[in-house]
Amino acid sequence: MASLRGMFFLMVGFLNTALHGSLIVLVSLLIPLTSPALQKRMKSCVEKIAEDWVRAWSLIFRTLTPSLCWSVQMPVELDHQRWHLILANHQSWVDILVLFHIFHRRLPFLRFFLKYELLYFPFLGLACKALNMPFMKRYSAAYLDRHPHKRGADLARTRAACAHFQDRPVAIVNFLEGTRLNADKQAQQHSPYRYLLRPKTGGIAFVLQALENKMDSVLDVTIAYPEGTPTLWDLACGRLHHVVVTVEQRDIPHDCRHGDYARDGDYQRRFQAWIAGLWLDKDRHLARLLGTE
What we know:
- It is a single chain.
- This protein is of the alpha/beta class.
- It has one domain: Glycerol-3-phosphate (1)-acyltransferase (3-Layer(aba) Sandwich), CATH 3.40.1130.
- The chain is 49% helix and 14% strand.
- The chain has 11 helices and 8 strands.
- It has a 6-stranded mixed sheet, with helices on both faces. The protein has a two-stranded parallel sheet with strand order 4-5.
- α4 links the parallel β4 (114-115) and β5 (135-136).
- α1 runs parallel beside α4 and α6 runs parallel beside α8.
- The longest helix has 29 residues, at 2-30.
């Protein structure tokens, strides 16, 4: 019975993504063919379709996972007309649906930094590309030694994506760990944290640099699963019963708001120290949420 429920959940979710993803791509392809005055209206239309996509996912949650308990703490008021940078821990693909669900209608449509391989996921990849989400390629040090011209490619993609976000408020999500948490990755990294991988700071530094003067704070999001880290299949089958999320608005230290992360070593160290402190606090907070402090 649980497997049938899971297959139905995934089928409905896929159809939702296929429908709205196709509409997003179609309207986006038509935008360059229209007049400047009409282009602005069509871009708003794309945003509306994206919001409907998330609204449908929230309906799927409420209808097909009625036993799922949400414990969410966040600021009472979040300004929908401001630019936001969301920093979150990452454990599962479920995290993405959780973030869409809790911030729906509270923030502008979320944009994620995505792995390049997702570009080829049916309907989803092209829709995210049309929404100007940056697709990042992770290169090993050995690969970059053999192909030095690839250095800085992700920075270029980040700047190109941020160029589209200058004229309208946006909420950008960055999973600082760069990948989903598991014990093997923690061991490989010699991570000093109990529940986190080491954070990567370059991406968000470049976002703040590209969107200078747009942001003076970040939303620090901590996601916890008291029953253990779920897979998407666990969610679909109704085996996920409790999600705990806390959202804290944190000021960006004044000496971290402006600087050249790539060229200014002092700025880079200040920025890394700020994120390291934030990540240490998050690790302790996760221990409290999971009852293991």
